[in-house]
Amino acid sequence: MRSTRWAIALSTLLSIGAVSSGFAAEPAAQLRVTLGGQELRVEAGRPVEVELDGKRVTLRVEELPYRRFAEAGIAFDYPRHLSWEAEPGNWTLDGNSAVVMVFSAAKGEAPDPDDVLDGIEHSLKSARRAPRESILLSARSGALDGTTMTVTLVGNRLRYEAYRIEGRSHDALLVLQDTLTDSGDASAEFVALRKQLAQTLEF
Description:
This protein folds into two domains: about 1-60, no CATH class; about 65-200, Protein Transport Mog1p, Chain A (3-Layer(aba) Sandwich), CATH 3.40.1000.10. It contains three helices and 13 strands, in the order H-E-E-E-E-E-E-E-E-E-H-E-E-E-E-H. The protein has helices spanning about 1-20, 115-125, 190-200, and strands at about 30-35, 40-45, 50, 55-60, 65-70, 75-80, 85, 90-95, 100-105, 135, 145-155, 155-165, 170-180. The protein has a seven-stranded antiparallel β-sheet with strand order 7-8-9-13-12-11-10, with helices on both faces. It has a two-stranded antiparallel sheet with strand order 1-2. A two-stranded antiparallel sheet has the order 3-4. Strand 11 and strand 12 (about 155-165) form a beta hairpin. The protein is elongated.
């Protein structure tokens, strides 16, 4: 009898959800905007009328789908959903499949990408050394030569790309990580991230 009541309740909830499925949109971000000394609270994407220099004007603020990384002498845009972790001299931007790691170094002291990949393999306790391949990342400030490898960890194939960036005042190391699909292809998240890096990376 109890199981019958649960079945009826579940059926009722499902039918309600089917009828009212349009209400589940995520609320817009709440933003604080200061305009001519006037502080306003607005919703992202929703226009509001404000008075500026005695005139009524329409203000609309859009929340962009990316953030701007500007550390270690380099700068680039990355998807807003990536989580941010920072320690002195290194930063990690972590997504569902794709990860970006940046390490700061003194001028001329950035480690060799091959050595970095060796260190990653050692930390993953790989049974044998994965083959290395040269790779190129085209960026706004010029092309970067890098090294890539693919390793297997607990059934997952992880692909790494490592680039040494020689900046004006100091150097940086850029490491990209991707969890490949079951067919061995790059994830959609990584493809989009790498494209955005190529379009916006400056050093």
